[in-house]
Amino acid sequence: MLDWTSTDITNAIQSAIAGNRRELDRFFAAMYERAKRSLISLTQSEEMAMSCMADALVKFERLFVKEQRALPQSNIPGYLFMIAKSKYFDELRRQKKENELKTNLKVIHNSAVYEEGDMEYIYARREQAMQLAIGELSAPCQQLFTTILKEGTDKPQQLYELLGWENSRKVSERLYDCKKQLKIKAAIQLERLERA
């Protein structure tokens, strides 16, 4: 089916709620094919386009199948594309922030003077500074970083599922704020350790 009407989509959702996902999966495939060219043009990567659309479809299913919310009144394909596009821009922001954090930690590391010059000593000091800094963070930030270290993931959707927080967007926002706090506190702790 090329053009899915609101009625077709509603019927596919109702079938999925009843346990038959076939029509919903067909709808998802049709929506991906419809948005594929635009998403690849935006992301410059078929893999990233697929990932963003998959995230959008997971969100669509959560909202309208699992939570059974009312569908948008019009342009559901446009709604899905908007979610996928937002996912892409969220990923770009996350990568930019991650790169900034790595750069800042590298600057901190390179600007410090180490008498021993021993890499194990340097890494131990940095690890100690990070642990001390995490201990100074708020309880939600501590929980977030403990989960990241324990589970080995910093992807908001996975953290959202592990922590059971409000939504993955809140996890992204809190992750950004917590990393910013951690960067500052770790730099202060590293400086204290170097002076001691």
Mind explaining what this structure looks like?
- With 196 residues, the protein is mostly helical.
- 81% of the residues lie in helices and 0% in strands.
- α1 (6-17) crosses α2.
Name a few traits of the molecule:
single chain, about 200 residues, mainly alpha, 8 helices, about 80% helix
Whole-angstrom Rg: 22 Å
The SSE order reads: HHHHHHHH
| Distance N to C terminus | 70 Å
Structural class: mainly alpha
Spans where pLDDT lies below 50 across 5 or more residues: none
Number of strands: 0
Query: Shape, please?
Result: elongated
Percentage of residues in strands: under 5%
Helix content: over 70%
| Chain oligomer state | single chain
Which helices and strands appear, and what pairs or packs with what?
Blueprint: H1 6-17, H2 22-43, H3 46-66, H4 76-111, H5 119-136, H6 139-151, H7 156-163, H8 168-195
Overview in brief:
With 196 residues, the chain is mainly alpha-helical.
